[in-house]
Structure formats: structure tokens, C-alpha cells
Amino acid sequence: MASVLRSHVDPGSEQFAANREAFLTALAEIEALFGQVTSGGGTADPEKNARAVARHRARGKLLPRERINLLIDRGSAFLELSPLAGWGTDDALGAGLVTGIGRVSGVECVVSANDPTVKGGSQSPITVAKALRAMDIARQNRLPLVSLTESGGADLTKQVDVFNPGGASFRNLTRLSAEGIPTVTLVFGSSTAGGAYVPGMSDYVVLQKDSARVYLGGPPLVKMAIDEDADDESLGGAEMHARTSGLADYLAVDEADALRIGRDIVEHLGWRKAGPGPDRHPREPQYDAEELLGIASADIRIPFEAREVLARILDSSEFDEFKPLYGTTLVTGWGHINGYPVGILANNGILFSEEAHKGAQFIQLCNRMDVPILFLQNITGFMVGTRYEQGGIIKDGAKLINAVSNCGVPMITLMIGASYGAGNYGMAGRAYDPRFIFTWPNHRIAVMGPKQLAGVLTIVARQKAQAAGQEWDDEAFAPVRDAFEKQVEDESTALFATGRLWDDGIIDPRDTRTVLTLALSAVHSAPIVGTERFGVFRM
Predict the structure, then answer these.
(1) Residue 412 bridge partners (DSSP)
(2) Per-residue pLDDT tens digits for 353-370
């Protein structure tokens, strides 16, 4: 039976205050980066960005988030995905693309919008990866896809990294359509070269008069290829496509009209959710979400109680715990988030054989019940050492990974601390295809911790030197070890991970319940069906 989780947090403690301060500092950095993305331009130079935005507005055009605000239902939430994609790379911060989930005419849709202020909306490798991720979310969760298109096509300076993966976007559009998931494209400007296939392969196409340009080759390319002099309108103008080629299903007089038509198209789809939805009325947790900033450790080496997090995101802070006395470093049980039932696996320490058995059994039960699973990751990995290897930690850990790999019900992963080694796998990391994966700012991800990795590197180097009959100088090797440790530390951060699309975004811990509610609503757009098919469990 479910019972109310009791909190033992002391908001007046030094540790609580230190955690809170560290989180607020990290969140301020993330907010500043997000502000850079939303301002447009895609560079770290505010003046250069302002000029790019001014040129765009001088053409009478809206910014991508302004278009989205007019598309989605007034007052409804928009769950933006991977807003800081590209961080730490030579691609534009935000990838020149806005993606997310919003309600359009009452229907939850995946929305994808090019940012023309970033290199004319051209597509970099990160842009392609972000677009493909949005399409995966649409397919997995049975969500209509609405594309707000204005793009100059591939960034030709990076064509070697764009061309091959970029082709998958056109394949995915046709596969969505084949699965009966509607695709709607609104074109506000250029949609050239390979980008012309975005409207070409969509179910519904709206072109903006006197602005949309859709062609495989623009006037300069046509001149070079076949020595024909052609103007933009006769070659790929909106009115031509509406009257002559038939590519346009609807001709809009301006941006607002195009967005209105897009809303009308979605309304007339008659789209219905296929999942069961909430099974009870939402009830607020009994504890303040504000306290999450002080509960989670800013220093992931310091453990914290996972149940304290659950008490602040679950309805009425009620939790029906499964096997509470067995495998105690893995917390398992059932609860509700805004009326949606969820099974939960949350880390309270390293994974032993008992935890692996418990987790695998619990995943099977959730599949039998057709209940989505929420993973709360704060894990340094599976236990190592002679005793545990002889005790079968490999085959036991494999049971948990087997269960995660073959899970039929939707999985949502929230990384609230460390995510190291095979622990990442056993707790539904990115490679295990959770429907959504979000992180807190304190998140760290790597094969193992920086000090451990640097220590392993040192031991291996020492053994190699000794095997070659060379004298080992630990002091001389120290700069190599320290540099490697710093590299791992820099490459383990939440910003590094989100910049490479290893997750769907860094969130404020205080927004966790809202974000998880939106994600659960999205997964219920598709049927929630468990499986009884798992790989061979080594007993």
C-alpha cells in the first residue's frame, strides 16, 4: 500500500545552504546561455547577433519562438528540447533550430522551427542531430510533427558531416507518414536543395506568398547547370507551387495566416491519444519543490536520499515501495505524477547483485501492468572486486540491463547526480532509448569519475613501463595524469552532455514535476503496452 514519504531534510543545515547556492549559480549560467540562444544570431557576439536579428526583422519576419507562440494554444506550455545543443562545439549554440512539444488546437505536437538568424537557417551537424531527435520523439510517442521551415539547406562548409546523416530526415518524414503520424510543414522563406524535400515529403504543406522559395536548385545553380536564366518566383515561388506544380496545399498571405492555417490543419486531423492517460486526479506533493535545490548534492561525491526527491515530485508524496528491505541501494516502487501512474527506479548508492535482481523483477512487473517507468539516476556503477566478481556481479548486472534493453513500456530518465559506467546502462541511459532524458545541473557522466580514470591511466602506464624494463617516474608522469583528469572533468559536465544531445535538456530541479508531467502526457499519445519478451536471463 502507498504511504506518505517522510522528509528528514534540514533546510537550516550548512550542506543544504551550500547545495542551494551551487545550484543557483549553475542555473544562472544556464539561464544566461539560454538568453543568448533566444536572442538570435547564434554567436557569442551580442552586436553581431543584433545585426542578424535586425536584418531578419527588416524583412518583416518573426523569430522562431515568436512563430511557435502563435502556433501553439494560447496560455499552454511549450516543452523546449535540447535548447543548449551545440554548447562546447564549433556549431552555433542552440543549433539554429528550436524543437519541442506544444499543444496545437488541442493536440500535442512535436514542433520544429529553423532559426533563420543563424547562418540563414542552414544546417550544421548538430542541427541535423537535433532535428532527427525531434523526429524520433514524434515517432515513438505518436505525436504529429509540425515543421516551421526557413532554411538555406546544409552548411556547405560542413557538408562532409551533414550530407549522409541529413538524408535520414527525409526518410523519417516518409516513415512518420507511413505509420499514420501526420506531418505538416509551413514554409516562411527559403527551403532549398535537399531542404526542398521537407515540404515535398510532408502530408500537408503551407507556403507563404511572396516569401517562400522551394526549389532543388536556385537561380545561380540553374544558370551554372543548364545555362537557364530563371527568377525566384517562376522557379520556386509560393504562388507558382500553389497554381502550377501542386507542391503547396495552402497559400498563406503572411506569417500569421500561415500559422492560422497550420492550426486549422491540426484541428481537422481528428487526432486522439491512444494511451490510457491519468487514472486519478492530480494532487500536489506535501513538500516544497524549492527544497530540491538544497537536497541534491552539488558535489556528486556526497550521497543524498532519493526518497527526498520523490517526496517532492509524487502526488501527495505517496509512494508504494517494492522490496524496501532488499537491495536497499536501489529504491523501487509505484506512485503518480499529476495523476499519471509511474513505476520508479531510483539510486541510493552503488548497484550490487541484489539491486540488479530487484530492478529486473520490478521492470518485468511494470511491463505486466502496462505502466511507464521513471529512472532517477545517481549512480557510480556496479560493485567491483574479487568477492563480487566471484559472486556473479556480471551476470546479475546483465539481468538488469537485459530488462532495460527489452522494456516495452515507455521509459523516462532523469539524471539527478552521477551517471558512471555500466550504471548508466542499467538505469536507462541514452543508449537504451528512453522516450525522454532530462538532467539537473549537477549531473556528471563518464566511464567513471575523473580521479578514478586518471588513476587507472597511471596504473596502466606504470605497468607498461615496468614490463618494458623502464624506470617509472611518478613525479614526471604527474602532469600527464593531472591534464587527463581535468579533461575528463571538463567532458563530464551537464553542459558538455547536453551540448552533444546526450539528453533532451538541463532542467531546473524545481520544474521537475512539470517537465515530467509534460513528458508523461506525451508518451500517453501512444499506446502503453508492456512486453513479456526478454533476452535469456543468466540465472
Answers:
(1) 374, 436
(2) 999 999 999 999 999 999
